[in-house]
């Protein structure tokens, strides 16, 4: 098992609901350390670049509009298998399909407004961390 770093975003819906603290508590209770964080209100250009992998998908425009609809909280999480652990905490993309007790089951409204983002693999984690925190390492040890 490896210590990994992953990029997490608390999306505009969850920031607006005032649940940043509750979501941070879940990261910490799961043994993930918040080693960098910043609040930002993304521009259309930034959101489009960040989600460039989805640019051909039918939901791309809605996704970008949603991500720039209000401030987001962006963090790097570090810990044992942090990438998979964060995805487990998040739950399925569609909150209706997310397991009970996951962040999306508890705080998300819809597949558009689904509370959190998390990197899905070491390669995407590296790219996403560099996007928001240039100069940071992905693996610590
Ligand atoms: P994630 O890794 O679980 O966030 O899901 P994806 O990487 O597949 O998609 C990125 C984001 O696009 C999701 O978190 C959703 O907000 C949005 N999204 C994905 N699939 C759909 C869809 O079928 N319809 C809509 N409206 N949004 C979607
Ligand atoms: Mg994804």
Automatic annotation (TrEMBL):
Q: Name the keywords, alphabetized.
A: ATP-binding, Cytoplasm, Kinase, Magnesium, Metal-binding, Nucleotide metabolism, Nucleotide-binding, Phosphoprotein, Transferase
Q: Does the keyword Hydrolase apply?
A: no
Q: Where does ATP bind?
A: 11, 59, 87, 93, 104, 114
What sort of enzyme, by top EC class, is this? Answer: transferase
What are its E.C. numbers? 2.7.4.6
Q: How does it assemble?
A: Homotetramer.
NCBIfam families this protein is in? PRK00668.1 (NF001908)
Q: What is this protein called?
A: Nucleoside diphosphate kinase
Q: Which organism is it from?
A: Aromatoleum anaerobium
